[in-house]
Amino acid sequence: MKTLEITKKILKQYNIRADKRYGQNFLIDDNILENIVDVSNITDDDLIIEIGPGLGNLTSYLLNRAGHALLIEIDNKMIEILNNRFDGVNNYTLLNQDILKVNIDELINNVEEKLNKKFKTVKVVANLPYYITTPILFKLLQESARVSEIIIMVQKEVAERMVARPKTKDYGILTLMVEYLAVASIEFIVPNNSFIPAPDVTSAIIKLIKSKRYNVTNEETLFKLIHASFAQRRKKMINSLESTSFLDMSKHDLETIFQKCDLSLNSRAEELTINDYIKIIETIKL
Ligand code: SAM
Prior knowledge:
Blueprint: H1 3-13, E1 26-27, H2 30-39, E2 46-51, H3 57-65, E3 68-72, H4 76-85, E4 92-95, H5 104-115, E5 121-127, H6 133-143, E6 147-155, H7 156-162, H8 173-181, E7 182-190, E8 195-196, E9 203-210, H9 219-230, H10 237-242, H11 251-260, H12 274-284
Bound molecules: S-adenosylmethionine.
């Protein structure tokens, strides 16, 4: 049976509707679902984490290929639905939890202990609830040592911000943080009629492969510098930084630093690459 028919049948059978509060937009296009698992290169050595399995539309494709899937769903109405839909399937662990409140690496350990198996690769594959895309993303990129690849559905605009080039309007904090922590690529665009209900926006599948390509003495300071620089993105960076307390530097000190880094004193935040930000932080030696 096609995913669209299954979705309609489940919604009717349980007499439920998509819950806007939880950002529920169910994927109903089988070609898109197939493409998501294809670009995720899933093998049976992989542990897949799905955030928000919902009715199980993507889950059903994931369970066909993954060694095991850890499903984390906040909406308790979905738990019974998922257990019924995947009755007899035994390569998943379903948790009724809020992704923002769990310790992901601890959950991975629990699954591995239960199965008495260590997974080579842990990937997150998910059609994310858009209202919390950014906190989920940073949690996956910064807090988990085990998740190595992230293949997620996000709003097209958010995907474009992740891979933006300097001196464009999309280039900003998200771009620089992603650039620092991962290699990002937009895999394909997903039209809004691939979901029910159809969201107001176009979506995209983005792939992030975590990568430690840059060496920084103090990451926290780098992140603070990026945030402070973009606080007023239209201003000259030196003027924005002069008023930030964490640096506590005069305009003259900042000008000396920029000169040492070979950067124009007129630079704006959106003109500098991640290497420029790293150079500044290493020159200040905070
Ligand atoms: N994976 C399903 C699909 O593709 O059809 C549903 C995707 S829907 C866009 C987002 C899912 O995330 C919903 O099932 C929603 O209940 C769940 N969700 C929302 N907030 C969550 C949270 N904080 N933690 C875990 N799941 C959440």
